[in-house]
Amino acid sequence: MNHLSTEETTGLHPWSEGGHIDAAGLESWVQGRLAGQRQQIDRLLAVEGQKTLENTLRPYDDAVATLSAAGSLASLLDSVYPDKAVRDKARELTQTVAEAATALSLNQEVYRALVAMDMSGADPATAHYVSQTLLNYRLAGVDKDEATRALLRQLSDQATEISLTFAKNVQENINRVEVRDSSELDGLPEDYIRNHPADANGVITLTTDYPDMQPLMTFAGSADLRLRMFRAYNTRAYPANRPLLLDLLALRQQIASILGFASWADLATANQMMGSAANMKKFIAGLEQASRAGATREYEMVLAFARKQEPGLAALKSSDRGYWYEQYRREAFDFDSQSVRPYFPYEAVEKGILETAARLFHVSFQRNPGAGVWHPQVSAWDVYDRGRLCGRFYLDMHPREGKDKWFSAAPLIPGIEGRQLPEAALICNFPGGRTDDRTDGRPHDPGLMQYSDVVTFFHEFGHLMHAILGGHQQWAGVSGIATEGDFVEVPSQMLEEFFHDAKLLASFARHYQTGEPIPEALVERMNRASAFGRADGVRTQLFYTSYSLDVHNRPAEEVDPDAMLEQGYKRMLPYEWVDGNRMYASFTHLIGYTSNYYTYMFDKVIALDFFGQFDRAHLLEGPTAMRYRQAVLEPGGSKPGTQLIEDFLGREQKMDAFAQWVGEEFAGSSNDQ
Ligand SMILES: [Zn+2]
After folding, report:
1. Is residue 350 within 8 Å of 323, Cβ to Cβ?
2. Ligand 1 center–CA 451 separation, angstroms
3. How far apart (Å, rounded) are the C-alpha atoms in residues 53 and 120?
4. d(CA 472, CA 385)
5. Beta strand pairing status for 408-413 and 388-396?
6. What is the pLDDT of residues 472-516, one digit of tens each?
7. How far is the CA of 600 from the centre of ligand 1 (A)?
8. What is the pLDDT of residues 217-231, one digit of tens each?
9. CB contact at 8 A, 322 and 217
10. Inter-residue long-range contacts of 3-12, CB under 8 Å, 24+ positions, other chains counted
C-alpha cells in the first residue's frame, strides 16, 4: 500500500484527520501558509549574483504553490463547509490570500529577478512557464509607477471582495415556490412527487435547488408552475447582486484602462488563445450565422407541435422550452426522458463513471475512508497509476443548505512531481445522497438522475482527470488545469461525448429495481432525441457568451444589465421573454469567467475534433485514449493550448466535426411534424 502517510499530509489541509475545522484553526492554517509564502519570496530576493532557475524560479514557484493551495482550500470551505461561521471565515481568508497573490503579481523586485534569470538550460516547459509568468506580470501592471501599482492593488482587492460577496449571495439565497394544488405536479416523476410531500396545511414547497428545479422545468405540465419556478430561479440573489455587478464592472473597466486596454474583455483575452475581444466577436458572429437557420427550424417544429396540443398557443415562453422540447421528443423520437431515469440512480452512476474513467485513462481509484472530509456526504478517493499513488480527489455531490448551488471541479493542491501529489474536488448538486433517517415508511430516495445530469457528471469528471493526470509537473505554476483559461473546457466536454455509447452505458446503467441494463435501443432513441435542439443549445450558449462579452466591452456607466439581458436574449433566442428575469444576479460565471464565457463553445469545437479521433466502435479500447491522456492531459499547462491540439491531432484544429455535430440533429427526424 502506498497511502500518503500522516506526516506527509499534516499541514497540507486545513482540516483535522477527521475533517473537522473551526474558524480559529482555519485562520491559523492560512496565516501559517502565508508566512511560508513570504519566506519563499524573501529567499528569492536574497539571492546575490547570478539568478538561476534553482535559486529564483524554484522559490517563486513554491510561493505560487503555497498561495494556490491556501486560496483553493479556503475557497472550497467557503463553498461547502456546513458551519456558517467557518464559511464566513473561509471567505474572509480567501480574500486575504487573493490580496497576497495580487501583491505578488505587482511585485517589481520579484519580476526583475525573474527577468534576470539565466534561461540557457531551460527545457521547453520551463521556458513556457517563465514566458507566461512574465506576460502575466506585464498584464497585471508591474511596469507602472508605484502610485499606479498601489491603485491597481486597491482596485483588484475591491473587485475580489465584491466577487466573493456576489457568490455568497447566490450560495445562500434559496428561493421557494409553493404549490397548493397538487395537480400542478402532474407530469413529474412519481419519485419526485413522493419526495415532496405536502405539509400540514396542504402546501408543497419546492426550492430553486437544482434537483427540485430541473425536473420541474422539464416535466411539469402546468405552465403557470413552470413560470413561477422560472421567475424564482432567475431572481436568486436579486436585488442584492445588481449593484454589486455594476460596481464590479466599473472596477474592471478602470483596471483595464489603467493598463492601456480599451475594455476589460480585451485585457481578459490578451493571454488567452482568443487574443482579443474583436476575435471573440468574430467567433460569436460565425456561430450565430451557422446556427440561425437550424434554430429557427427547431423552434417552428416545437411550436407547431405545441399548438396541436394547445390550440391558440401564441408563442413559447422561456419557461416553456424544457417542457415542450421534452414533449416533442416523446412524439418525434419515441423517447420519454423519464424512461431512462430509473437506469441512472446516483450510486450506480458514480460507480460507472469512475470505472469508465479508470479503464479509459488506465488508472485505478480506491476509496480512502481514512482521509479527512468536511462532511459525511463527501468521499475521498486515491488515484493510482500503474500501482503508484498519483493523487486524490473528493466527491461532494448533493445539495445541502448553505452549500454552493452549481456543478464544478475545484483543483485544491497543485501537484509537483516528486514533492506533492495533486488533489481536486467535485462540488455538485445531483439528486440523492439523503441519509435514510425517515420513520414514516416512505422509501429511500435512490437519486434518479436525468440523463443531462449524467452528462454533467462526465463533464466534471473530465476536469478532475485533467487536474490529477496533469498534476505531475516540475513546476506548480503549470500543474493540472493550468492551460490558457480558454482551453479548460476541452477535457470536460470531450468526456461528455462518451455518454452516448450504448455499450458503455449498459456496463453501469441498470434499472434500480430490476437490475436490467439499459437497452441499446433505448440509448439509440435517447441519442437521436437529445441531438434534436443542438442549434438552439448553441444559441443559448451564445446568449450567455455575448452577454458576458457585452457587459465587459463598453464603459461601465453604459451597462444596463436588465435591458442588455432582454435585448441579448431576443437577439439569440426565439422564445417569448419573461419579464422579471434577472438571471445576471445569479450568473456566477460573470465572476469567474468574466468576459470569457465563450470558452465553452470555443472548446466544444476542439473537444468534438478530439472525440473524432476515437474509434466509435471500441471507445475504451485501442491506443487513442492513452495517446489522448499523454498528449493532452499529462502536460497540464506546460505547453500552449495550440501545441496540445497539434500534438494530439497531428494537425491544426478544424471546424468539420462541430459542423457535422450541429447538422446531425435532423438526421433522425425525417418523419417530423
Ligand atoms: Zn466545465
Report:
1. no
2. 17
3. 10
4. 12
5. unpaired
6. 999 999 999 999 999 999 999 999 999 999 999 999 999 999 999
7. 8
8. 999 999 999 999 999
9. yes
10. 3/368, 3/370, 3/382, 3/389, 4/382, 4/389, 4/392, 4/421, 12/69, 12/413, 12/420
